[in-house]
Write a sequence for this structure.
């Protein structure tokens, strides 16, 4: 991708946040509860990315997602560490693809701990695929108007004669 001089890139200090240094099995073990715990923050970030179409404008929302993730795992560490570690270890060691189906018993113990101590219920199957309306306080960006080029080739007039194709149409199965 080519960048011109008028593109402003953020400073390193704006991009520096504490990273979430966790293994894949650990992230998979906490993914469902994390998704529900940080749902509002994640939706705000994704809405910003979709509307702005420029990740540089959504740095603060991205930092909020990282902060929420760190807060979630700190709470899990404080309240359900043993159950969580057992579940993550099972995911890591039970299969080559880190499948969850072999670890339903340890998952149940972890889910029960999360429900009792953090009052966070495991989302039902299909929860994250349901359509939801996200309410935001961030103003909607202005819509860019379509560029008009004065030297563009003019289009054919509506009443112009349109001859049939010489060798037939590629839509030969469609009849008028």
């Amino acid at each position: 991708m080519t960048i011109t001089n008028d593109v402003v890139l953020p400073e390193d200090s704006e991009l520096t946040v504490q990273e979430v240094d966790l293994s894949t099995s650990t992230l998979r073990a906490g993914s469902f509860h994390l998704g529900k715990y940080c749902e509002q923050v994640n939706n705000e970030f994704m809405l910003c990315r979709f509307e702005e179409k420029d990740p540089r404008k959504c740095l603060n929302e991205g930092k909020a997602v990282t902060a929420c993730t760190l807060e979630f795992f700190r709470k899990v560490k404080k309240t359900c560490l043993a159950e969580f570690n057992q579940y993550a270890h099972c995911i890591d060691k039970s299969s080559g693809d880190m499948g969850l189906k072999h670890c339903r018993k340890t998952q149940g113990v972890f889910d029960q701990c999360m429900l009792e101590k953090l009052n966070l219920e495991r989302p039902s199957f299909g929860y994250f695929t349901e359509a939801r309306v996200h309410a935001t306080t961030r103003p909607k960006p202005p819509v860019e108007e379509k560029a008009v080029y004065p030297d563009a080739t003019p289009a054919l007039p509506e009443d112009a004669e349109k001859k049939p194709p010489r060798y037939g149409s590629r839509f030969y199965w469609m009849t008028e």
In short: The radius of gyration is 26 Å. The longest helix spans residues 59-79. The mean pLDDT is 90. DSSP finds six helices and no strands in the chain.
